[in-house]
């Protein structure tokens, strides 16, 4: 396991003067942002509207380096987004290197949160949401670059590179959290792999990878963190999926779905088993979220975009979710004010699991 500290990155600044309605422009910009958020090296996007003139906007996009931004804007999918924005606004793009960034110092007594799979997607958004609410966060994953991307610009986020399927990794992660922050208040078991395919398509290796990552790793990490969680009166949040809630079936993802059903069983049982030790255990079941997981699991950009469009149209909300929406719910479930919720797995899926 290695530990990294955040660097500076570059900031891309655009001013936009609209030739269409703000609503149309903001919708097109949101689609572009979702594309950008899936690209390696992306840190964050902020769109600022002029307080008096609704036709003027500034876009601030932070990237790990100029090369990452250049690769993202060279992809064919971006050209479509750029054309859509050009039809709605004229823009003046510039690239800057930051001289100084000022953020509030992290609270030295803020709660400490461990987020597995914190380098990408929902885990990254969850780490940012916790950090913005004053928590200190250790993000865990196998890829140093993505973890660094999460920590960029956040003094309160530290990284730990670990393959959670390996023996001893859970204990090392807990030891690292205690070394860096001295306590653990919240453990978010978010890391997972989703290897889609029918029973016949998959080998024992595929099954073992999914069970080891999605089930054995949360078991090992929660066990390793028990004493720390007991000392803080802490909370475990297990990230499930709304696709396997209730008596649903999931042809083409049976082992992935089974790993999440089993995780939900652990959530309920641990809630009862660990209540006497003052530890609360809850689950969060996202619906389909535009986190880039499909591409990381082997789909092409086009296939993933088609999948998201199809699933978004099936959800009563009429769209897929964003990682930030899921991250916000995870932070809320971990709050003291949510303390009367225990052993429950909360679907946040735009109503998809009701259809
Ligand atoms: N996106 C969705 O539509 C959706 C829907 C329902 C539920 N979920 C659940 O939400 C959670 C987050 O998914 P996501 O969409 O954000 O996907 P993601 O970006 O692919 O996140 C998975 C994370 O797990 C990490 N990881 C995988 N294997 C690991 C290992 N052996 N050790 C340590 N870290 C490991 C990955 O990082 P490295 O590869 O760098 O290790 C990655 O950061 C998962 O539990 C997923 O099942 C997602």
Topology:
Blueprint: E1 3-4, E2 10-18, H1 22-37, E3 42-49, E4 56-63, H2 66-74, H3 76-86, E5 89-96, E6 112-116, H4 121-132, E7 136-141, H5 144-151, E8 157-161, H6 169-181, E9 186-189, H7 204-232, E10 235-239, H8 254-274, E11 280-286, H9 293-296, H10 301-314, H11 323-334, E12 345-348
Parallel strand pairs: 6-7, 6-9, 7-8, 9-10, 10-11, 11-12
Antiparallel strand pairs: 1-8, 2-4, 2-5, 3-4
The structure holds NADP nicotinamide-adenine-dinucleotide phosphate (NAP).
Domain module count:
2
CATH-level-4 superfamily name of the largest domain: NAD(P)-binding Rossmann-like Domain
CATH architecture name of the largest domain: 3-Layer(aba) Sandwich
Q: How much of the residues is beta strand, in percent?
A: 15-25%
- The best one-word shape is globular
Number of strands: 12
Helical amount:
40-55%
**Unreliable runs, pLDDT <50, ≥5 residues?**
1-7
Keywords:
355 residues; 2 domains; Rossmann fold; binds NADP nicotinamide-adenine-dinucleotide phosphate; single chain; disordered N terminus; 11 helices
What does this structure look like?
Helix content is 42%, strand content 20%. It is globular and about 60 Å long. The protein folds into two domains: 8-96, Alpha-Beta Plaits; 112-354, 3-Layer(aba) Sandwich (Rossmann fold), CATH 3.40.50. The protein has helices spanning 22-37, 66-74, 76-86, 121-132, 144-151, 169-181, 204-232, 254-274, 293-296, 301-314, 323-334, and strands spanning 3-4, 10-18, 42-49, 56-63, 89-96, 112-116, 136-141, 157-161, 186-189, 235-239, 280-286, 345-348. It contains eleven helices and twelve strands. It is of the alpha/beta class and 355 residues long. NADP nicotinamide-adenine-dinucleotide phosphate binds next to helix 4 and helix 9.
